[in-house]
Design goal:
With 159 residues, this protein is of the alpha+beta class. It has one domain: Alpha-Beta Barrel (Multidrug-efflux Transporter 1 Regulator Bmrr, Chain A), CATH 3.20.80. It is built from three helices and ten strands, in the order ββααββββαββββ. The chain has an eight-stranded antiparallel β-sheet with strand order 1-6-9-8-3-4-2-5. A two-stranded antiparallel ribbon has the order 7-10. A hairpin with a 2-residue loop joins β8 and β9.
């Protein structure tokens, strides 16, 4: 059984720098490679540092969102600021969220693990809730004992 909680969250906005994922939505290897390449690119070209510089806290968001029938993926932060490099203000609704917590050696491993547990175990097991779309995110919250820790947040509705 997957270890998850349901939490009420206020609406929030993530400022994101994004890319369109071109792989088929069932091609996990392709999607994961595109995501890894994206993180490497924004780290090397300075956009990630610029994003972190305007963040309200240390949380780093990896957001998945369908926009105009495209699979979009964003690196984002909570902030009141705007940046020329930013491509989207991502609105997360007020309401219930399925939350999966975890830790891993790297941010990439954390994201893969949380996404697998959330979509592969927690959502299928949770009979009284449903994910009906909208942005979902992996939140890298920090490091402890040499591991990256964080959570996956998926907005859900009661069935």
């Amino acid at each position: 059984m997957a270890n998850y909680t349901l939490e009420e969250k206020d609406s929030f906005i993530v400022l994101g720098i994004g890319t369109e994922l071109k792989s088929d939505y069932t091609d996990y290897a392709g999607i994961n490679k595109e995501k890894a390449d994206f993180w490497q690119t924004i780290e090397q070209d300075g956009r990630l540092a610029a994003l972190k510089a305007v963040a309200a806290n240390d949380y780093l968001f990896a957001v998945n969102e369908a926009v105009n029938n495209k699979m979009m993926y964003y690196a984002g932060v909570l902030t009141e600021a705007s940046l020329p490099e930013a491509t989207r203000m991502i609105q997360f609704p007020k309401g219930e969220y399925l939350v999966v917590k975890g830790e891993a050696k790297t941010a990439e491993e954390l994201s893969h693990s949380l996404t697998g547990i959330a979509f592969g175990q927690a959502l299928p097991e949770a009979k009284d809730i449903a994910y009906v779309g909208g942005p979902n995110t992996t939140v890298e919250m920090g490091q402890r004992d040499g591991l990256v820790y964080g959570e996956m947040w998926i907005p859900v509705v009661r069935k």
